[in-house]
Design goal:
583 residues; Gyrase A, domain 2; binds arginine
Length: 583
């Protein structure tokens, strides 16, 4: 086929066939494929199945040596154009050497078809990410969800899944009671003309203070919640108005960071929540607990969901039950992904368990994932806050990023080389790129320290290093006056050499693209792609330093540089990095 394919998948199939034929008496034999260590002697990939198979035989009292088993595997291995040869080494490792002509053909395919995704079965996927709360701060935790969610959505879209990006905003909590009551007092004419609330944050603070101090106000706030929840038109109007102010603020962040989302907040599920609560009740899943109605998950969960509060109100738990039902049963999604901070891991564990119990989630049919992430810390390793102890506003953070990125570019003297327009584009690319990349390149389970100085470094696995590396690689062809058409033409001829050790190393890294994509699809850890694209950049540099030379006919090298750039560009797109032509 004229497409890049997953090397490990192909090897897995080949060795699975061989192992099953060699050892028909073992059911489900282990097939262990790994990328070989960088010493070329050990081949390019390895099959390490002989040892575990020997153990299986030993357990049943048979005397075997892994080396002999390895030989039996090779005797049964079907031939494939991708595999040049195999060798047995050490106690029974099988070293696999890839065929270079095959590799050349796969690189050529990139120029004919572009960088294509590996083939996967099409699925409908709902991804719930960002999901801030109205009138409350959209904080760095939501920023992490936004960045990680956007990248996972882009990865899934690249793989041609049907992806629905859902913003599950908190727009229906009890906080609206005091907000509406405060709005009525502060802006009595709000139903006629839009009140000038620019800072919802301090509006919220004012309302909260009154709520805590003034009994009469508190009572009115409670009344307002009841009226809102029974959809009283004036209250609905006031509620919409408050949501609009928040929505505009959120959208500013999304626009700057290139985030696409469809809003479907908690309020969307209100009538569905009423319905599902009734269903759960009738099916006997609810238990009375001191006036609350609770539902237990399974053995793995130690706390129940609160489905109905003692005052009769619904909760975050009940609206998530309604939402998962809507997603799996009404929308008929095959897969639902929730990108939410790890603090909510238990909530989602209970949600999935309760949904299974209620017959909403069928593990044989559906996949659900909780994509958690650790907290963002300040440079003092404490919770990320401003000096005065307030949480940091995201707009201020992005502005700070722009400022720091410009400093960095000036430090490199770029302001003297670039036009003002180019400088601005480079500034935005660096600022937003470094914020996203710092987040994505850390294992999402870990907490990470937010430091502009660290993320703006131009050495190591950083956005700045990668953006520069990419620009340099792209400029190789431009400097040599090679147009894309010319490169495409050249790529058809058999002049992409992969003979030199460094050329081969580069070729093999590029060929791993489908594997890296599938690995990330499998476990939803975007840092795999960051590590991969960094490896591409460093491997390219090694190749360039030892092979590229202006005097010789370098057309084959230019083709390799362009293939490298094309794959990097695809990774950048998934990671939300926007390279610029000049920086
Ligand atoms: N609004 C919630 C929060 O800020 C996150 C919602 C996540 N999505 C969900 N379906 N529960 O904590």
């Amino acid at each position: 086929s004229s497409k890049m394919e997953s090397i490990t998948d192909i090897l897995h199939q080949l060795f699975h066939t061989a192992i099953c034929a060699a050892f028909p008496d073992i059911t489900d034999p282990p097939v262990v494929i790994a990328v070989a260590a960088s010493n070329p002697k050990f081949g390019d990939y390895q099959c390490n199945s002989a040892m575990p198979i020997a153990n299986i035989y030993k357990q049943s009292g048979k005397k075997v040596t892994p080396r002999n088993l390895a030989q039996k595997i090779l005797d049964n291995l079907p031939s494939h154009p991708m595999v040049e040869k195999c060798e047995i080494a050490g106690p029974g490792f099988i070293n696999i050497f890839l065929n270079r002509d095959y590799a050349v053909k796969k690189l050529q395919a990139i120029f004919q078809n572009g960088v294509q995704p590996p083939t996967v079965e099409r699925k409908k996927i709902i991804i719930d990410f960002s999901s801030p709360n109205i009138a409350k701060e959209m904080h760095v935790g939501h920023l992490r969800s936004t960045i990680i969610g956007e990248t996972i959505a882009r990865l899934l879209e690249f793989l041609n899944f049907e992806v629905h990006r859902i913003n599950h905003i908190g727009d229906w909590g009890t906080q609206f009671g005091m907000l509406i009551a405060h709005l009525q007092d502060r802006f009595p004419d709000h139903l006629e003309k839009m009140p000038p609330i620019s800072d919802l944050q301090s509006f919220y603070k004012e309302a909260k203070e009154r709520f805590d101090e003034d009994e009469e106000f508190k009572k009115r706030a409670y009344d307002s919640v009841v009226k809102l929840q029974s959809f009283e038109p004036k209250h609905i109007k006031a509620w919409k108005l408050i949501c609009d102010v928040s929505r505009k603020e959120f959208q500013k962040i999304y626009d700057r960071l290139d985030i696409t989302l469809k809003e479907r907040g908690e309020s969307f599920y209100q009538t569905r929540t009423e319905k599902i609560v009734k269903e759960l009740e009738e099916a006997g899943f609810l238990e009375n607990d001191d006036g609350r109605k609770i539902m237990w998950g399974d053995e793995s969960t130690t706390v129940p969901f609160t489905i109905v509060k003692s005052d009769g109100g619904f909760t975050y738990d009940s609206s998530d039950m309604a939402a998962i039902k809507h997603r799996l049963q009404e929308e008929k999604a095959d897969w639902v992904i929730y990108v939410v901070d790890s603090g909510q891991a238990t909530h989602f564990q209970i949600l999935f368990a309760c949904a299974k119990k209620a017959g909403i989630l069928d593990p044989k049919k559906h996949r659900v994932d909780f994509v958690g992430f650790g907290v963002v810390l300040g440079e003092d390793k404490k919770k990320f806050k401003t000096r005065s102890g307030d949480s940091i506003r995201l707009v201020d953070l992005l502005d700070k990023g722009l400022e720091k990125a410009l400093d960095k570019l000036k430090e490199k003297g770029r302001d003297k080389v670039l036009t003002p327009d180019e400088l601005k584009r480079a500034q935005e690319s660096v600022a937003y790129g470094c914020i996203k990349y710092a987040d994505l390149s850390h294992n999402r389970n870990h907490e990470y320290i937010f430091s502009f100085d660290k993320m703006l470094e131009d050495k190591g696995n950083t956005a700045v290093y990668l953006l520069y590396a990419f620009t340099r690689i792209r400029s190789i062809a431009r400097t040599a006056n090679f147009t894309p058409e010319k490169i495409k033409e050249l790529s058809k001829k058999e002049n992409i050499s992969l003979e030199h050790e460094k050329e081969w190393k580069l070729g093999k890294v590029l060929l791993r693209f489908p594997d890296e994509i599938l690995k990330t699809l499998n476990d939803l850890y975007p840092h795999h792609i960051c590590e991969y694209v960094y490896e591409i950049a460093t491997t390219f540099t090694e190749f360039y330093d030892s092979c590229y030379c202006v005097e010789k006919d370098s057309s084959g090298d230019i083709v390799k540089a362009e293939a490298t750039a094309m794959i990097m560009e695809k990774c950048f797109h998934i990671l939300g990095l926007k390279p610029v032509e000049k920086m």
